[in-house]
Amino acid sequence: MQAWLCETLEGVGALRWRELPTPEPAAGELRVAIRAASLNFPDLLIVEGKYQAKPALPFVPGAEFAGIVDAVGAGVTTFAVGQPVAVVGTHGGFASHACVDASRVIPLPAGFALEDAAAFAFTYGTSQHALIDRGALRAGETVLVLGAAGGVGSAAVQIAKAAGARVIAAASSAAKCRLCREIGADATIDYSQEDLRQALKTLTDGRGPDIVYDPVGGAFAEPALRSIAWRGRYLVVGFAAGSIPALPWNLALLKGAAIVGVFWGEFVRREPQASAAAIAELAHWYTQGRIKPVIDRRYPLQELPEAFERMASRQALGKLLVVQGN
After folding, report:
1. DSSP letters spanning 122-164
2. Residues 6+ positions from 263 with CB-CB distance below 8 Å
3. Three-class SS of residue 301?
4. Are 146 and 212 in contact (CB under 8 A)?
5. Predicted TM-score (pTM) of this structure
6. Which listed site, 58, 69, 85, 261, has its alpha carbon 20 to 30 Å from 204?
7. Exposed e or buried b for every residue in 92-123, given b needs 16+ CB within 10 A?
8. Which residues does the UniProt record annotate as the domain Enoyl reductase (ER) (predicted)?
9. pLDDT score, position 326
Protein backbone atom coordinates (compact mmCIF):
# COMPACT_ATOMS: atom_id res chain seq x y z
CA MET A 1 0.00 0.00 0.00
CA GLN A 2 0.97 3.66 -0.23
CA ALA A 3 0.92 5.95 2.80
CA TRP A 4 2.20 9.14 4.37
CA LEU A 5 4.28 8.13 7.36
CA CYS A 6 5.00 10.21 10.46
CA GLU A 7 8.42 9.04 11.64
CA THR A 8 9.36 12.05 13.79
CA LEU A 9 7.21 14.63 15.57
CA GLU A 10 8.54 17.49 13.49
CA GLY A 11 5.33 18.48 11.77
CA VAL A 12 3.88 18.17 8.30
CA GLY A 13 7.18 18.91 6.57
CA ALA A 14 8.70 15.74 8.01
CA LEU A 15 6.01 13.37 6.67
CA ARG A 16 7.34 10.85 4.15
CA TRP A 17 5.57 9.11 1.25
CA ARG A 18 6.20 5.38 1.58
CA GLU A 19 5.41 2.06 -0.11
CA LEU A 20 4.43 -0.34 2.69
CA PRO A 21 3.12 -3.91 2.86
CA THR A 22 -0.67 -3.97 2.76
CA PRO A 23 -1.74 -5.00 6.28
CA GLU A 24 -4.01 -7.91 7.14
CA PRO A 25 -6.83 -7.30 9.64
CA ALA A 26 -6.41 -8.85 13.07
CA ALA A 27 -9.28 -10.32 15.06
CA GLY A 28 -11.97 -7.70 15.56
CA GLU A 29 -10.61 -5.53 12.74
CA LEU A 30 -11.50 -4.87 9.15
CA ARG A 31 -9.48 -3.44 6.28
CA VAL A 32 -10.73 -0.43 4.37
CA ALA A 33 -9.67 0.47 0.85
CA ILE A 34 -9.67 4.22 1.36
CA ARG A 35 -11.31 6.42 -1.26
CA ALA A 36 -11.14 9.80 0.51
CA ALA A 37 -9.79 11.30 3.73
CA SER A 38 -10.39 14.76 5.14
CA LEU A 39 -8.04 17.12 6.93
CA ASN A 40 -8.90 18.26 10.44
CA PHE A 41 -7.04 20.61 12.78
CA PRO A 42 -5.99 17.74 15.10
CA ASP A 43 -4.12 16.20 12.14
CA LEU A 44 -1.73 19.14 12.33
CA LEU A 45 -1.29 18.76 16.08
CA ILE A 46 -0.79 14.99 16.15
CA VAL A 47 2.24 15.07 13.82
CA GLU A 48 3.81 17.63 16.18
CA GLY A 49 3.09 15.59 19.32
CA LYS A 50 0.70 18.28 20.56
CA TYR A 51 -2.59 16.38 20.43
CA GLN A 52 -4.19 14.44 23.29
CA ALA A 53 -3.72 11.15 21.40
CA LYS A 54 -0.07 10.19 20.83
CA PRO A 55 0.29 7.11 18.59
CA ALA A 56 3.57 5.21 18.71
CA LEU A 57 6.02 6.16 15.98
CA PRO A 58 5.97 5.56 13.10
CA PHE A 59 2.28 6.05 12.27
CA VAL A 60 0.06 7.13 9.41
CA PRO A 61 -1.83 10.34 10.26
CA GLY A 62 -5.38 11.08 9.13
CA ALA A 63 -8.22 10.81 11.64
CA GLU A 64 -11.22 10.69 9.30
CA PHE A 65 -11.74 8.73 6.10
CA ALA A 66 -14.18 6.69 4.05
CA GLY A 67 -13.94 3.77 1.67
CA ILE A 68 -14.93 0.18 0.97
CA VAL A 69 -14.40 -2.82 3.25
CA ASP A 70 -12.06 -5.21 1.39
CA ALA A 71 -11.20 -7.70 4.16
CA VAL A 72 -12.54 -8.65 7.61
CA GLY A 73 -10.76 -10.23 10.55
CA ALA A 74 -11.91 -13.05 12.78
CA GLY A 75 -14.99 -12.30 14.83
CA VAL A 76 -16.25 -9.43 12.66
CA THR A 77 -19.85 -10.20 11.75
CA THR A 78 -21.45 -6.76 11.42
CA PHE A 79 -19.52 -5.71 8.29
CA ALA A 80 -18.99 -7.40 4.94
CA VAL A 81 -16.54 -7.10 2.07
CA GLY A 82 -17.80 -4.51 -0.42
CA GLN A 83 -19.64 -2.43 2.20
CA PRO A 84 -19.16 1.38 2.14
CA VAL A 85 -18.06 2.77 5.51
CA ALA A 86 -16.63 5.81 7.25
CA VAL A 87 -13.99 5.73 9.98
CA VAL A 88 -13.19 8.24 12.71
CA GLY A 89 -10.29 7.71 15.08
CA THR A 90 -6.93 9.32 15.67
CA HIS A 91 -4.81 8.22 12.69
CA GLY A 92 -4.48 5.89 9.68
CA GLY A 93 -6.36 7.76 6.96
CA PHE A 94 -3.66 9.26 4.75
CA ALA A 95 -3.01 5.96 2.99
CA SER A 96 -4.49 3.67 0.37
CA HIS A 97 -5.56 1.10 3.01
CA ALA A 98 -6.07 0.94 6.75
CA CYS A 99 -6.88 -1.82 9.23
CA VAL A 100 -9.15 -0.51 11.97
CA ASP A 101 -11.06 -1.84 14.94
CA ALA A 102 -14.65 -2.53 13.93
CA SER A 103 -15.89 -0.33 16.81
CA ARG A 104 -14.49 2.72 15.01
CA VAL A 105 -16.35 2.03 11.77
CA ILE A 106 -19.61 3.68 10.74
CA PRO A 107 -21.80 1.88 8.18
CA LEU A 108 -23.08 4.25 5.52
CA PRO A 109 -26.71 4.35 4.38
CA ALA A 110 -27.55 4.04 0.70
CA GLY A 111 -26.87 7.24 -1.21
CA PHE A 112 -24.23 8.60 1.17
CA ALA A 113 -21.38 9.77 -1.07
CA LEU A 114 -17.97 8.54 0.08
CA GLU A 115 -16.37 11.99 -0.26
CA ASP A 116 -19.10 13.51 1.89
CA ALA A 117 -18.70 10.65 4.38
CA ALA A 118 -14.98 11.40 4.69
CA ALA A 119 -15.81 14.97 5.70
CA PHE A 120 -18.79 14.30 7.93
CA ALA A 121 -18.54 12.61 11.32
CA PHE A 122 -15.74 14.68 12.87
CA THR A 123 -17.19 18.11 12.10
CA TYR A 124 -20.90 17.35 12.26
CA GLY A 125 -20.46 15.10 15.29
CA THR A 126 -18.55 17.86 17.08
CA SER A 127 -21.09 20.53 16.17
CA GLN A 128 -24.11 18.42 17.07
CA HIS A 129 -22.57 17.46 20.40
CA ALA A 130 -21.71 21.11 21.06
CA LEU A 131 -24.96 22.79 20.07
CA ILE A 132 -27.63 20.21 20.87
CA ASP A 133 -26.09 18.15 23.69
CA ARG A 134 -23.76 20.54 25.54
CA GLY A 135 -25.40 23.83 24.51
CA ALA A 136 -29.06 22.71 24.85
CA LEU A 137 -29.97 24.81 21.81
CA ARG A 138 -33.65 25.60 21.49
CA ALA A 139 -35.55 26.70 18.40
CA GLY A 140 -35.77 30.49 18.16
CA GLU A 141 -32.46 31.16 19.95
CA THR A 142 -29.61 33.11 18.36
CA VAL A 143 -26.28 31.38 17.73
CA LEU A 144 -23.00 33.11 16.93
CA VAL A 145 -20.57 30.86 15.06
CA LEU A 146 -16.95 31.99 15.01
CA GLY A 147 -14.73 30.67 12.21
CA ALA A 148 -17.97 29.90 10.43
CA ALA A 149 -16.51 29.10 7.00
CA GLY A 150 -14.23 26.32 8.26
CA GLY A 151 -15.05 22.64 8.60
CA VAL A 152 -16.65 22.62 12.06
CA GLY A 153 -17.94 26.17 11.60
CA SER A 154 -19.86 25.42 8.41
CA ALA A 155 -21.27 22.28 10.04
CA ALA A 156 -22.38 24.36 13.05
CA VAL A 157 -24.15 26.86 10.79
CA GLN A 158 -26.13 24.08 9.12
CA ILE A 159 -26.97 22.21 12.32
CA ALA A 160 -28.08 25.36 14.14
CA LYS A 161 -30.37 26.25 11.22
CA ALA A 162 -31.75 22.71 11.08
CA ALA A 163 -32.54 23.03 14.80
CA GLY A 164 -34.51 26.23 14.24
CA ALA A 165 -32.00 28.84 15.45
CA ARG A 166 -31.17 32.26 14.07
CA VAL A 167 -27.53 32.04 12.98
CA ILE A 168 -24.97 34.84 12.91
CA ALA A 169 -21.82 33.64 11.14
CA ALA A 170 -18.52 35.41 11.76
CA ALA A 171 -15.61 34.88 9.37
CA SER A 172 -12.48 36.60 8.15
CA SER A 173 -13.33 37.66 4.59
CA ALA A 174 -16.18 38.69 2.33
CA ALA A 175 -15.88 35.43 0.38
CA LYS A 176 -16.20 33.38 3.58
CA CYS A 177 -19.20 35.39 4.70
CA ARG A 178 -20.82 34.84 1.30
CA LEU A 179 -20.37 31.08 1.68
CA CYS A 180 -21.97 31.23 5.15
CA ARG A 181 -25.05 32.94 3.74
CA GLU A 182 -25.24 30.33 0.97
CA ILE A 183 -25.39 27.50 3.53
CA GLY A 184 -28.06 29.15 5.66
CA ALA A 185 -26.65 31.89 7.92
CA ASP A 186 -29.19 34.64 8.61
CA ALA A 187 -26.52 37.31 9.04
CA THR A 188 -22.75 37.53 8.77
CA ILE A 189 -19.93 39.54 10.31
CA ASP A 190 -16.64 40.01 8.47
CA TYR A 191 -14.40 40.52 11.47
CA SER A 192 -11.49 41.56 9.28
CA GLN A 193 -13.51 44.69 8.48
CA GLU A 194 -16.10 45.04 11.28
CA ASP A 195 -15.91 45.37 15.05
CA LEU A 196 -17.32 42.09 16.32
CA ARG A 197 -18.91 43.45 19.46
CA GLN A 198 -20.54 46.44 17.81
CA ALA A 199 -21.85 44.29 14.95
CA LEU A 200 -23.39 41.85 17.45
CA LYS A 201 -25.10 44.71 19.29
CA THR A 202 -26.63 45.88 16.04
CA LEU A 203 -27.72 42.44 14.85
CA THR A 204 -29.28 41.44 18.19
CA ASP A 205 -30.70 44.82 19.27
CA GLY A 206 -28.22 44.85 22.14
CA ARG A 207 -29.33 41.52 23.57
CA GLY A 208 -26.44 39.36 22.33
CA PRO A 209 -26.35 35.75 21.15
CA ASP A 210 -27.75 32.96 23.32
CA ILE A 211 -24.94 30.62 22.25
CA VAL A 212 -21.40 31.35 21.12
CA TYR A 213 -19.81 28.47 19.19
CA ASP A 214 -16.06 29.03 19.31
CA PRO A 215 -13.62 26.68 17.55
CA VAL A 216 -11.09 29.50 17.12
CA GLY A 217 -10.03 31.02 20.45
CA GLY A 218 -7.59 33.89 20.09
CA ALA A 219 -8.47 37.57 20.05
CA PHE A 220 -12.19 37.29 19.30
CA ALA A 221 -13.07 35.17 22.32
CA GLU A 222 -13.29 38.05 24.81
CA PRO A 223 -15.50 40.39 22.71
CA ALA A 224 -17.75 37.42 21.94
CA LEU A 225 -18.09 36.58 25.64
CA ARG A 226 -18.70 40.24 26.49
CA SER A 227 -21.53 40.23 23.95
CA ILE A 228 -23.30 37.07 25.14
CA ALA A 229 -26.94 37.22 26.23
CA TRP A 230 -28.17 36.69 29.78
CA ARG A 231 -27.99 32.96 30.60
CA GLY A 232 -25.94 32.44 27.45
CA ARG A 233 -23.74 29.42 26.79
CA TYR A 234 -20.19 29.86 25.54
CA LEU A 235 -19.08 26.66 23.81
CA VAL A 236 -15.31 26.08 23.94
CA VAL A 237 -14.72 23.88 20.89
CA GLY A 238 -11.07 24.49 19.98
CA PHE A 239 -8.22 26.91 19.41
CA ALA A 240 -7.57 27.04 15.67
CA ALA A 241 -6.10 30.54 16.06
CA GLY A 242 -3.23 28.92 17.94
CA SER A 243 -3.63 30.74 21.25
CA ILE A 244 -5.78 29.86 24.25
CA PRO A 245 -7.50 33.03 25.49
CA ALA A 246 -7.29 34.10 29.13
CA LEU A 247 -10.80 35.36 29.75
CA PRO A 248 -12.00 37.55 32.66
CA TRP A 249 -14.37 35.19 34.48
CA ASN A 250 -16.36 38.04 36.00
CA LEU A 251 -18.02 38.29 32.57
CA ALA A 252 -19.62 34.88 33.10
CA LEU A 253 -20.83 36.04 36.51
CA LEU A 254 -22.33 39.30 35.20
CA LYS A 255 -24.21 37.56 32.38
CA GLY A 256 -25.22 34.45 34.33
CA ALA A 257 -23.42 32.66 31.49
CA ALA A 258 -22.09 29.13 31.30
CA ILE A 259 -18.66 28.29 29.89
CA VAL A 260 -19.09 24.84 28.38
CA GLY A 261 -16.26 22.56 27.25
CA VAL A 262 -16.77 20.47 24.12
CA PHE A 263 -14.53 17.42 23.60
CA TRP A 264 -16.25 15.25 21.01
CA GLY A 265 -13.55 12.57 20.92
CA GLU A 266 -13.86 11.92 24.64
CA PHE A 267 -17.67 11.98 24.34
CA VAL A 268 -17.41 9.22 21.71
CA ARG A 269 -15.14 7.18 23.98
CA ARG A 270 -17.13 7.61 27.19
CA GLU A 271 -20.67 7.60 25.76
CA PRO A 272 -20.56 5.39 22.66
CA GLN A 273 -24.29 4.71 22.53
CA ALA A 274 -25.21 8.39 22.71
CA SER A 275 -22.56 9.19 20.12
CA ALA A 276 -23.80 6.50 17.74
CA ALA A 277 -27.37 7.75 18.09
CA ALA A 278 -26.25 11.30 17.29
CA ILE A 279 -24.35 10.19 14.17
CA ALA A 280 -27.37 8.16 13.03
CA GLU A 281 -29.57 11.24 13.39
CA LEU A 282 -27.07 13.35 11.45
CA ALA A 283 -26.91 10.73 8.68
CA HIS A 284 -30.70 10.90 8.46
CA TRP A 285 -30.53 14.69 8.15
CA TYR A 286 -27.99 14.21 5.36
CA THR A 287 -30.29 11.87 3.43
CA GLN A 288 -33.06 14.46 3.85
CA GLY A 289 -30.82 17.17 2.36
CA ARG A 290 -30.83 19.26 5.55
CA ILE A 291 -27.05 19.17 5.95
CA LYS A 292 -24.19 18.56 3.52
CA PRO A 293 -20.42 18.96 3.96
CA VAL A 294 -18.85 21.95 2.27
CA ILE A 295 -15.87 20.68 0.29
CA ASP A 296 -13.27 23.32 -0.49
CA ARG A 297 -10.80 21.33 -2.62
CA ARG A 298 -9.84 17.77 -3.46
CA TYR A 299 -6.17 16.79 -3.76
CA PRO A 300 -4.63 13.52 -4.90
CA LEU A 301 -3.30 11.62 -1.88
CA GLN A 302 0.27 12.27 -3.03
CA GLU A 303 -0.35 16.02 -2.67
CA LEU A 304 -1.19 15.92 1.05
CA PRO A 305 1.47 18.57 1.92
CA GLU A 306 -0.22 21.05 -0.43
CA ALA A 307 -3.58 20.36 1.25
CA PHE A 308 -2.02 20.95 4.68
CA GLU A 309 -0.49 24.18 3.42
CA ARG A 310 -3.90 25.45 2.34
CA MET A 311 -5.45 24.50 5.68
CA ALA A 312 -2.68 26.20 7.64
CA SER A 313 -3.08 29.38 5.58
CA ARG A 314 -6.77 29.59 6.61
CA GLN A 315 -7.83 29.98 2.99
CA ALA A 316 -10.11 26.94 2.95
CA LEU A 317 -13.87 27.35 2.68
CA GLY A 318 -15.13 24.18 4.33
CA LYS A 319 -13.25 20.87 4.31
CA LEU A 320 -10.18 19.73 2.37
CA LEU A 321 -9.96 16.18 1.03
CA VAL A 322 -7.23 13.90 -0.25
CA VAL A 323 -8.64 11.28 -2.61
CA GLN A 324 -7.59 8.14 -4.45
CA GLY A 325 -7.75 7.98 -8.22
CA ASN A 326 -6.94 11.60 -9.15
Report:
1. HHHHHHHIIIIIIS---TT-EEEETTTTSHHHHHHHHHHHHTT
2. none
3. helix
4. yes
5. 0.91
6. 261
7. bbbbbbbbbebebbbebeeebbbbbbbbbbbb
8. 11-322
9. 47
